[in-house]
Amino acid sequence: MAGSKFAYVRNFELPDPLLPGTFMVLRIDGHAFHRLSEEHNFMKPNDERALQLMDHAARDVMNEFKDIVLAFGESDEYSFLFRRSASLYNRREAKILTTVTSLFTSSYVFNWSKYLSDTPLKYCPSFDGRIVLYPSPSVVRDYFSWRQADTHINNLYNTVFWALVLQGGQTTTEAHATLRGTVSSQKHEILFSRFGINYNELPARFRKGSVLVREEVSDAVETGDAPQADQAISTPTGEPASVSDKKAQKKPRVRTTVELYHFDIIGDEFWDGHSNILADS
Amino acid sequence: MAGSKFAYVRNFELPDPLLPGTFMVLRIDGHAFHRLSEEHNFMKPNDERALQLMDHAARDVMNEFKDIVLAFGESDEYSFLFRRSASLYNRREAKILTTVTSLFTSSYVFNWSKYLSDTPLKYCPSFDGRIVLYPSPSVVRDYFSWRQADTHINNLYNTVFWALVLQGGQTTTEAHATLRGTVSSQKHEILFSRFGINYNELPARFRKGSVLVREEVSDAVETGDAPQADQAISTPTGEPASVSDKKAQKKPRVRTTVELYHFDIIGDEFWDGHSNILADS
Amino acid sequence: MAGSKFAYVRNFELPDPLLPGTFMVLRIDGHAFHRLSEEHNFMKPNDERALQLMDHAARDVMNEFKDIVLAFGESDEYSFLFRRSASLYNRREAKILTTVTSLFTSSYVFNWSKYLSDTPLKYCPSFDGRIVLYPSPSVVRDYFSWRQADTHINNLYNTVFWALVLQGGQTTTEAHATLRGTVSSQKHEILFSRFGINYNELPARFRKGSVLVREEVSDAVETGDAPQADQAISTPTGEPASVSDKKAQKKPRVRTTVELYHFDIIGDEFWDGHSNILADS
Amino acid sequence: MAGSKFAYVRNFELPDPLLPGTFMVLRIDGHAFHRLSEEHNFMKPNDERALQLMDHAARDVMNEFKDIVLAFGESDEYSFLFRRSASLYNRREAKILTTVTSLFTSSYVFNWSKYLSDTPLKYCPSFDGRIVLYPSPSVVRDYFSWRQADTHINNLYNTVFWALVLQGGQTTTEAHATLRGTVSSQKHEILFSRFGINYNELPARFRKGSVLVREEVSDAVETGDAPQADQAISTPTGEPASVSDKKAQKKPRVRTTVELYHFDIIGDEFWDGHSNILADS
User: Fold this and answer.
1) By residue range, what is the domain housing residue C117?
2) Does the N-terminal or the C-terminal CB of chain D have fewer CB atoms within 10 Å?
3) D211 by DSSP, 3-state: which?
4) Is residue C163 annotated as involved in ligand binding?
5) Which InterPro entries does the UniProt entry name for this protein (chains A, B, C, D) (predicted)?
6) What is the predicted ipTM?
7) How many structural domains comprise chain C?
8) The domain spanning residue C253 has which CATH number?
9) Is residue B178 one of the residues assigned to a domain?
């Protein structure tokens, strides 16, 4: 890139390293997805195909970036947690942020037709992203609790709202009015008494969001035993080494797959069973 | 996004405004495009279809972000210049950086099949991006001169290199050896004497890169006169207003189209003819 | 600083370079100077001795940092302008910011007794500082206009206020009430009609603040001609070279002194006569 | 500060909050103290009066900023640790950095004559400062271990060096040559065999540096019992409330004093006995 008298302009490129020893959380959000869902007739309140497409894109990101140890998705957003000691791209913020956001976007467009096969993509969807640093394991847990609590709050509201509209015949304005000021238990009651819906029996995907975790694979699993996660496709990293795992390849590697779950991550059980996620290295 | 005791984690999201009164240049680069071009059999030294796809993605970005007044592309990179007074997203760095990089990526994947119709995309291409601030018009000009000089240097080298390999029968190692230490005039000479190629007669797209500029449209043009740019598709902004141009819509708007050129932007002529690009507002 | 297994902690020291090609303005403000002025019986509305002490500290800063081309002071604050191409300490923000703020503070305490000889300093005064980047000459001028306009507004208010209190016998509450809602001309009128004070005849120091400029010295001046500035002490830089001017010493140096003025810097005259201040290098 | 058409220049003042939940360490270093010590005839290898002056300045800083829970000083530097949840000045970096550095400087100059009474200060000493964020208690401990290990390494070298020069009659060049390549045990041996000095019996202040800690005061101490720290002057915070402790004053406050020690802070004992220093709030 050098070689000319103009090359001095590179001096304006300033360094942007992220503080070492902190957990990076990179959150991606759909840009104007309200319109996107309208124009592509996403089902209300949740379109499982669109959510599966998000999960697919997130999985592609995790397969490429080995420093990501956990991801959580809901609606049109996905959060990725990098292990504390991650040193990819020397922790340069713009490089990490854009490469991950770009790959996620690419996968979303690339795989659209696999999930919404009868709904051609009409225009280019896009996402924004940000990196937030969290200095301690406890605040990382609170971050993911915040997102899963948000999933619950939004999904309960949306479920009742669309039941009122689609089954109850209310306008959207009326449905909002019906829900104004109601607390959680009242929303459950409306769902059950008017529509015979037991909220807690709705699919866990909608109520809990999507959790992607890197799990070690034993030989038994590789030779065909049934895995527990709902999407059992193991994804060995057969692709050429990316920047982020060159080191890892030097030592014999434990095979891992990225598994998808829809369970609680607010309580201790998940974290106790995956203590490596918040470990120091 | 609020509503729970965990919402305090938002306090860790720090502001990242870019210095006002400066020109932002956002440069996007292909991630691992050497491999991408190999796996999809891009033509050497230049694949016009792949370059046109880059131009298409850049045009989509400019149609969405009205604050971008100039773009320059070569190979697998594209640089976007925002007008000095741009205030989109309150100049928040991560928001601007990721939204633009994501839209570019999305368009690249979305439109791939239009340009490389007989070469199905095998996996997800991705890009990285960065924003660099330039405080004065003169250094902005030097930035774009730097990129166009780079285009020239790389293209001359690659043109001779691939002539030696594809027509001259050299191995790639031999071709690099042949070129080692040669200056520009020697490369011209090799091209001409051995392969009968006059470098200066090669397509301007390869020698000069791609320049995208927003040009005002007179009524005559709208009703069918032939425009001068090589890709004459006018692109009125018929899409719903994006964040970046809500203000603009309030006043009667001069219609503009984004035009593509392959000409010199190092000399004064281009800038004299487009003085609005470096204007203060 | 190395030599132990703990030295890795230096990795947490992140770079903080300031954008090249911009004008740095470093503004220092007195910390809790309301109390300081009370406890040391500063005269109201202005204590010339205290202002002279501020000027002295600012001059010491300019004599040490040759990249500073202009300073403006009023009340308990001082702003320093660095030339656009300043590269001291590789433009590291914290280094520049703290070294200048520290030297200013040091000089203020060190020289206190020269100006307030009969008022011993009772405790440690301190200052805060910040650096703001301005990308163009015109906004730099607006910055200094902002400060001088502020000087005028504050001084006019304070002059009438303290006349009402000290000569007019009002309480401070009454004086604020008298001034509430008054415009500039009314304040002038109160001063003149009640106290016989023509505001425009008050010392320029109080009305215009202090302007420190580096002026070239001709030989004639050195051998004894009367300079025009109100504080004529020439201050050749006889001290050992500081970091900031090591380069300058290699070439024959034009002798300069830092001169103090109390004149208008909002209009063009000052800037036309000192065009080097906003020059590119 | 508003009130004029120029006030827009404030828009160039960008926010600079420090990441919450991290430990700030603010380190102050003497600027050109080699020259300062020469010009004021500091004793070699250590001038106890100058070190006491540093301690005094650091104590003044701790008395003003209640969020500082630990300070460590050696030679011409001092490091201040803020408690993890410190929120002074909304964690604005420049404000914290400059106010502390300025107060330290002010105290150093203000109190000079108390410690170096027969050596008038010839010119203005100054300091630079920086803030480094550490995300976890363990790395904070490693930071302070790094500084105390540095104290030991430097002091051992300097002690032997100056013994060779002042008592052994070597030139400084010869003394450096004598020490080149020697390890710690050899330096101890030189000191003992040639000069009869048992390094471990030298004053702890020189070997361990200065540790300032906020200790709770029991009534017994207040009424006159002998405290254990070597500088027994209790420093109740009788001064008007500073910004940093306005909140604290609302609840009944445990009286604390800042105590000075010269003991080991690398091992566990100190930290076990002062667990509040690294606590979360």
Assistant:
1) 16-145+203-278
2) C
3) strand
4) no
5) Thg1_C_dom, tRNAHis_GuaTrfase_cat, tRNAHis_GuaTrfase_Thg1, tRNAHis_GuaTrfase_Thg1_sf
6) 0.89
7) 1
8) 3.30.70.3000
9) no
